[in-house]
Amino acid sequence: MSMRRSRLELHADILETIQGGINKPTRIMYNRGIDWTSLTQLLQSLMDQGFVDVSFHDEANKKGRKIYSVTEKGAVFLSNFNKARDLMWSKVSSALVNV
Fold this sequence. Notes:
The chain has helices at 7-19, 25-32, 36-48, 72-97; strands at 52-58, 63-70. It starts with 6 loop residues before the first helix and ends with a helix. The chain has one domain: Winged helix-like DNA-binding domain superfamily/Winged helix DNA-binding domain (Arc Repressor Mutant, subunit A, Orthogonal Bundle). A hairpin with a 4-residue loop joins strand 1 (52-58) and strand 2 (63-70). Helix 1 (7-19) crosses helix 4 (72-97). It is elongated. By secondary structure, the protein is of the alpha+beta class.
């Protein structure tokens, strides 16, 4: 049985995927196993917070494929999120070993 991801984890997953070079919405959706409606809401949330920028294949007319990129603010968030997650899991792991 798998655990559900929190909204925060979903945001971090998407940022990690984009930072890893998968920057088109359909590819992000398939890579992270997120349905289209949720993905569009999450991407909009990331853009509203300034964590992600979007560009278009035809930038002059804002048409064509959307391509997402992680902003500096998004990269800082992702780095801090990963540090906190690693710290949490190291504490959990050490507690399990000491049981």
